[in-house]
Amino acid sequence: MTSKPLQAMLVLGTSIFLFSCVSTKKFKALQTDLDKLNGQYTTSQAVIADCNTDKANLNGKKAELENTVSLLNKRVSDFEDQVKFLKENNTQALQQLQNMSVISKQQAENIKRSMENIGAKDNYIQTLQQQMAYKDSLNMALVMNLKGAIGNMDDKDINIKVDKGVVYIDISDKLLFKSGSYDVTDNAKTVLGKVAMVLKNQPDLEFMVEGHTDNVAYKGNGVLIDNWDLSVKRGTSVVRLLQNEYGLDPKKISAAGRSEYNSVADNATAEGRSKNRRTRIVILPQLDQFFKLLEPAQKKN
To answer: What is the pLDDT of residues 38-78, one digit of tens each?
Structure first.
């Protein structure tokens, strides 16, 4: 028969053992929860960093657009000041002529009508200037959309610019074709898809796809004879891709080949030849709308 002190020691030992087991399980559970929380915290920090980067990029684009709008508003204001100055001078000159005895009333009326015609032409010129400023702002917005869609503009193989009111997209042939080939590569479809997305959102735009080569003679076999043929086939290959895979309206697209005769760099160096081997997408100016602006003046004349 067990003595009472021994029984007490057994009960106490059993209690300590059970308490130790329960505490270890709780500790492991709490440790697991802590690891999960730390993982969620790390993920949240990464998401916040990405959001901050996107916010900074958007703020930069907003600042560029605001600066462009400010410059255009300044140009319009300058034009308005010029027209106001001309009108005031015309009125003063007419008054001075009417006060002179050397001209008749009929002559003064003729001069008045001539000055009114000048004023009408000034208004017409101002309208044209405003339309040109509006077109410039649309081109800048289009360039910003293209740069935003393509993303990494540090890539020297893609260049988007505005020159004399025309938007140009130059893509190096390293991104589009293998050497001597006019078959568009799978990697090129990513870039062309992003460009097509922006162009598709501007259904009134018309554009031309030009193929360009360096001055190294074409040595391939088959249907192609020289760089003229190669440049044209590369232009039509891109046009077909934009039409068939990305749904752009073929009535708004033209294809052309410029061979080696519209270079942007010296063909005497490897670097220059690399720059000349490119495909250029030219956003064509809408000349029909410009000619409509000219119709009122032509009818008056």
So the answer is: 888 888 888 888 888 878 887 877 787 788 778 778 877 88
**Residue where a domain stops, chosen among 153, 174, 198:** 153
3-state class (DSSP) for residue 48: helix
Residue 52 lies in a domain: yes
| Residue matched to tokens 């260049």 | 159
Which of 91-100, 157-166, 242-251 has the highest mean predicted lDDT (pLDDT)? Answer: 242-251
110 is a domain residue: yes
**Residues 90, 120: Cα–Cα separation, whole Å:** 12
Secondary-structure breakdown of the chain: helix, strand, coil percentages, each rounded to the nearest 5: 65, 10, 20
Domain that holds residue 76: 10-153
> How would residue 297 be classed by pLDDT, with cut points 50, 70 and 90?
very low
**25 and 137 co-located in one domain:** yes
Q: Do 171 and 116 belong to one domain?
A: no
| Residue carrying the six token digits 């610019």 | 161
Spatial strand order in the sheet of 166-172:
158-163, 166-172, 278-284, 206-212, 253-259
Q: Which residues pair with 171 in a beta bridge?
A: 158, 279
Q: Which residue has the higher pLDDT, 83 or 124?
A: 83
Query: CB–CB of 163/285 below 8 Å?
Result: no
Q: Tell me, what's the pLDDT at 195?
A: 87
For 251, which DSSP code? Answer: G
